Each structure stands twice: as C-alpha cells, then as structure tokens.
Amino acid sequence: MKMISREDRRKFNRFSLDLLMKITGVDRDGIPYVDRTNLKNVSGGGAKFSTRHVHRYMPGQELEITIYLPGINDVKARMKGKATVLRVERLDEVNEEAPVADIALAFNGRLRFTRE
Q: What pTM did the predictor assign?
C-alpha cells in the first residue's frame, strides 16, 4: 500500500508570503485576545503563521483573521474571514518562557476583500 504524504493530499498549492496578520480569538480560559504576527504561507484552503503565544491556540478553535495586503499610498486593502486551527506545531524552544509554534489554519469559507 502506498503512503500518501500531506503534500499529495493538498487541494491547493502553498505560497510563501510575509504579510502582516491579525488574529482575534478566545483562549482555552475564555479570555479574548488579539495576536499580531506575520503570515508564513497561504493556499486556497488555509494559511500558516508563527506565534510566541502558543498557549492561546488549540486544534478546533475558531478564529477571526485579517491579512493585510501590500498597498500603495492611495489604497490599503485586507482579506478578512474565519478560520479553524488544524495543528499547533511546536518549534525548537527559543527559550522556555517564550516557546514558538507554527499554527496551521483552514479557512471557513472565502475571505472577504475590504479597502480603507
């Protein structure tokens, strides 16, 4: 039986992007938070970002996300929507007080394009 890798199962290609991202959620203690970070990559179905706030994220958690698109002086645009945490992938500990993790998300529908 042939094993199918995660990449073979992907419906969409992943693209590396370094864009500012805002995440709004509620942690496991019911406390609302806003996290600002940079997007690592994105596909048609999801995204991945890194955070030092590992304790805020858990698989199955629903989040509000905003991805700020590069703009010009006249137009500032962003993509907004909801996403669900698929995986919390702990990375090498930078230090014990601030562990780093990659958070993999699945989009819950299409993202909305908005302009300022």
A: 0.81
